Fold these 2 entries.
Entry 1:
Amino acid sequence: MDLITWLIVGVLAFAVVVAGTMFLARRRALPPAPKTPALPTTEPEARAEPGPAAEGGQESATGTATLERPEAPSTRMARLRRRLAGSNNPLARGLLSILSSDRLDADVWDDFEATLITSDLGVGPTQELTEALRRELVVDGVGDPAHAKAVLRHELLNLVGPNTDRSLNLQGEDGKPAVVLVVGVNGTGKTTTIGKLSRVLVAEDKSVVLGAADTFRAAAAEQLQTWGDRVGVPTVRGPEGGDPAAVAYQAVQRGIDEGADVVIVDTAGRLHTKTGLMDELGKIKRVIEKLAPVTEVLLLLDATTGQNGLIQARVFAEVVQITGIVLSKLDGSAKGGIVVQVQRELGVPVKLIGLGEGVDDLVPFEAEAFVDALLSE
């Protein structure tokens, strides 16, 4: 090989060495490639773990959607007190009519009684109120409107029951959750009211489990779960047409396992004339009490149903021991007197009232607030 060939080979070799050195130096100067983040191995905390299997039921957990924060109880109550007042309320009109009369003769008192009776106050309470007012106003009449209104307020408040204990018993025994059983006929808004009640309890920082024991109505469990999902409350449900008592049992067991404060159990909107269904309601209560006492049995009544609602109340009271009444639809169109009459009929207090279709339109019943709203002009 001649000298020129050796020179060419030497130059090429030198060039290869230089290029390799520059490549290695450049590679060392580059930052390390980012690592691919590992996939999570657990579900988000917002997703509840499945509960223990139970006879006839399957548990449905809340989703990861943004949860709603219910309106504070104090704000909700102030707003709903205003909604209760108004000239559209027949009972309010009847009460205020006596204050606007020029003189209190027999015709005025007869009209007053008739108005109160048609406002579902009942014959007995109406006569008591009328006699008390006639006795108090016999001298002064309504010449002093402020005095007459004060007398009317005092007597009406006595009928409603200002000193009645209307608190919900939400204290379980032996570390177990309180159990609230909600009963009522079709169309009273029972499932919706349970959803609203769960919002009230969540706003008070209580942990809640819902039990969808209405397995006869296809949409009932879905409806209840939707309410629960909105505030982060788990709903225990079973197959359509399944054993309602088994679902109720599983819901209470879930509440015990998770240390919940309250378990609320929905029941079928059974017709009070169906003996078999009423017997089943008694069975649900007995099965629940194998795990924990039922601390509240709330009967939901539509405030617009009047005497029909009272018939329903009597039948339910024969099957389970009612501890409180929830009156739905007690807004400007309701007659209002049902509050007094149903308490007299059952001997148990009205504890909650619903005044509209809004998600936070459910508040504890307060006798003074109710009477004051009725007498607001």
Entry 2:
Amino acid sequence: MKLCVIGLGYIGLPTSIMFAKHNVNVLGVDTNPNVINMLNSGRIHIEEPGLQEALIEVLNSNKFKAAKDPEAADVFIVAVPTPNKNDKYKSCDLSHVISAVESIIPLLGKGNTIIIESTIGPRSMEDDIKPLLEKSGFFIGRDIFLVHCPERVLPGNILNELIENNRIVGGITPKCTEAGVAVYSTFVKGEIIETNAKTAEMSKLMENTFRDVNIALANELTKICSQLEINALEVIAMANKHPRVNLHIPGPGVGGHCLAVDPYFIVSKSPKSAKLINLAREINTSMPDFVIDGVKRIMENCNGKVITIFGLTYKGNVDDIRESPAMEIFSTLLEQGEYEVRAYDPYVKKDWVVSNVEDAVEDSDLILILSDHDEFKTFEIKDYNKMANKQIYDTKNIVKDYSSDFTYINYGNIFKYNRLPVKVN
């Protein structure tokens, strides 16, 4: 089998390499020439455990190569971004998917399978992708097979989860579903769940929406407890002692290319009915302002001038800053210009990110934790003795060990600072 994967990002590249590891000839396609050159020279461009070693393995076996243009193949997988449109309901922008499908149409032959792994809005396969292929003269389910198979992996454990997780395979027709199952049976050990395309689309979106809504409940509780001077984290811990309660942990917002994006795809298709989903989005997108408000009160209380942000990614132990609330908080504080704001993140390699923790915290009045990296769980005073004020505001509730010299603030006690007025010059 020859496989062509369009898009070599956080999903497309691991997927390509996994097929190549299982004796499939894979051509990976990307529009970025730097990505192509890096991969063909044996270097990955994203952070993912085990991926570098796996790339070397499949390059040495001649099972994988990267290129700018697609080639004829038995199977085509589309794994390109689907951002929000800049419209009222932030609907799904299918332009990258459409472009990818158009690029392979001249290469298609009878019996080919086209799989869309990109997360897409409900009915996108039937209303947008299928007509595009039919317009080119193909009979779906007879000439070619069209499938939606959404990814279900956790960054930081992708290579394992590609194999072990179950997969939803949704075909336009039953024959399409069969074709999709045959492709993923190459390496998937988890259950392969057969369905139709529109059900697969909605299932993927609801997986992420479920989490977004439940995080919104925890975030709203945090705001309420802050107003009522109640320890929100203690409330959550106690409520979760109930055998049928599992409240999520609040945070500075929701990021990444899934939870912060996908619920809007549902809202845009049914805005009058998707009221809870839309409200959850509003709550979660409001959390950066809640964090900044608390930061200002903490800084006012100590006449602080310097803030050091710990963590810019949307989740721990990865380098992914897409839709990150930490980035929004960092940018907003910079734009407001009230404080000197520094950023420290051991996973993010940018010119403006301070690479040394001692330099990042020198003369700082507050460490603001916005990502749950393992490196941020303990604080030894020797690394922070040059701080002006030894304060930590932990919006991820991850710090487990810190010196008594620190003032530790989290969502359990931030209400003590929220009582303090912010001075107006």
